[in-house]
Amino acid sequence: MRTKKWKHVPVTETIQPKILYYGTPVILLNTCNEDETVNISPLSSSWALGNTIVLGIGLGGKAIENLERHPECVLNIPDPSLWENVERLAPYTGKDPVPNFKKDNGFKYEKEKYAVSGLTPCPSKEVKPNRIAECPIQIEAIVKNIQIPEYAPFFAIVETQAIHVHAHKEIIMNENHINPNKWSPLLYNFRHYFGISDELGKSFRSEI
Ligand SMILES: Cc1cc2nc3c(=O)[nH]c(=O)nc-3n(C[C@H](O)[C@H](O)[C@H](O)COP(=O)(O)O)c2cc1C
Which end of the chain offers a freer environment for a tag, N or C, measured as fewer CB atoms within 10 Å? Predict the structure, then answer.
């Protein structure tokens, strides 16, 4: 007779969290302003399959306005060492005037996102917005589709196609691979920043 191995089954409670940022990599999204300068927007809502990368971008911000006008972007993927540069960008929007709902959440207008973040621009190969030199992975991408869900008309689902992937030499292995022992993403975990390790710090909007 087979002996049953009893496993501890955790007890659950039903909760109503305000946010569902359950720990996805941070992206610094570079888009083109109307005057061809570059706006940088921190994001964490994304998934990738093949060369398609889908982003969740709030309406009323500068990123979506820029992508609707000029459908090119760079997805810069920071590592944990850059969390404070990301957080320096967090209270700002490139949108002027700042929409009321953003004002109410503590956002201010800032056009000079490079100056604020302390990061360095470098030219892209094909798309108009530049890349962020300090980010170990930088993906040039074209917007293929923008969809606003009927059930949630406050954000856009933006489908992009990666066309060039740039990576710091130190994290490349066997020509076309990223070495997972050398690379680790910066994770946004319920508004706190983590590497694949201990907590590094938290966002200004964290309530805990
Ligand atoms: C780490 C981090 C992750 C974020 N993730 C998202 C996201 O996935 N989608 C989104 O619309 N906003 C996200 N935000 C908020 C935007 O960064 C914020 O709305 C910002 O004002 C956008 O800048 P922009 O208006 O200049 O585009 C995130 C903020 C931080 C700090």
Answer: N
